[in-house]
């Protein structure tokens, strides 16, 4: 995943820093996050902190935060219920975890979380991910996008935030097939994708150039993010 250079939000033309609310049931982690976020002025500001249990929704409503940084390693079901509630309110949730429970992580993303970081991420990655999520992008690796798209396809679709307001670009049947296979095999190189489609690699590249232009993206990762972010499904 490509990291952008660090720059304060004030450089975007606004003097108000991006407000982040941190949630965790682990007091030491919560204190560390509060200290880190509070030190990022003017780039970020600490909107508040709260434990995941009991429900922090009242505190969140009063805080008027831009992004919620949520620890995924607490009690699973209340945490997933919280993600669902935040997504329903239009909240932008970035998850933090030290575990490798992929099923739980995928469920959290499918319920509306916008990204996930492991606890071994450095400060630069954390700050960049917060900003990316705030600007409406997903922060996921390719393995996660492939797994989640596969799960969505098997379930017949699950709308993600903003899905209702998005009209997918018109694609030919061949382009739909290319996008579907690309989503289901997101980690594979172009040569193998072309083989699954029974076309040459150069033909695939030509199709992708047209598809990227239609979606307004510049590469495969941008396409993955667009499709997952808006809950778009194309039959293989």
TrEMBL record:
**Pfam families from the xrefs?**
GerE
Q: Which domain of life is it from?
A: Bacteria
Looking at the record, the residues that make up the HTH luxR-type domain are 164-231
| Key words of the record | DNA-binding, Phosphoprotein
What are the GO MF terms of this UniProt record?
A: DNA binding
Q: Which residues form the Response regulatory domain?
A: 19-134
Q: What Gene3D superfamilies does the annotation carry?
A: 3.40.50.2300
4-aspartylphosphate modified-residue sites: 71
- Protein name (Swiss-Prot/TrEMBL): DNA-binding response regulator
Organism of provenance = Vogesella alkaliphila
């Amino acid at each position: 995943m490509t990291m952008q250079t660090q720059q304060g939000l004030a450089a975007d033309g606004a003097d108000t820093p991006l407000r982040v609310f941190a949630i965790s049931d682990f007091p030491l982690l919560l204190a560390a996050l509060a200290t880190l976020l509070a030190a990022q002025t003017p780039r970020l500001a600490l909107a508040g902190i709260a434990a995941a249990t009991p429900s922090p929704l009242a505190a969140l409503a009063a805080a008027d935060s831009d992004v919620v940084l949520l620890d995924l390693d607490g009690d699973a079901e209340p945490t997933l219920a919280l993600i669902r509630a935040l997504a329903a309110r239009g909240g932008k949730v970035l998850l933090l975890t030290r575990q490798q429970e992929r099923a739980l992580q995928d469920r959290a993303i499918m319920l509306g979380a916008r990204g996930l970081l492991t606890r071994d991420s450095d400060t630069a990655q954390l700050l960049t991910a917060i900003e990316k999520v705030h600007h409406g992008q997903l922060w996921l690796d390719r393995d996660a996008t492939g797994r989640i798209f596969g799960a969505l396809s098997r379930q017949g679709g699950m709308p993600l935030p903003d899905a209702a307001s998005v009209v997918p670009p018109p694609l030919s049947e061949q382009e739909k097939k290319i996008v579907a296979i690309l989503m289901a095999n997101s980690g594979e190189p172009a040569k193998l994708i072309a083989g699954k489609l029974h076309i040459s690699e150069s033909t695939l590249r030509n199709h992708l150039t047209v598809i990227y232009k239609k979606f307004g993206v510049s590469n495969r990762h941008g396409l993955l993010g667009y499709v997952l972010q808006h809950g778009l499904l194309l039959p293989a």
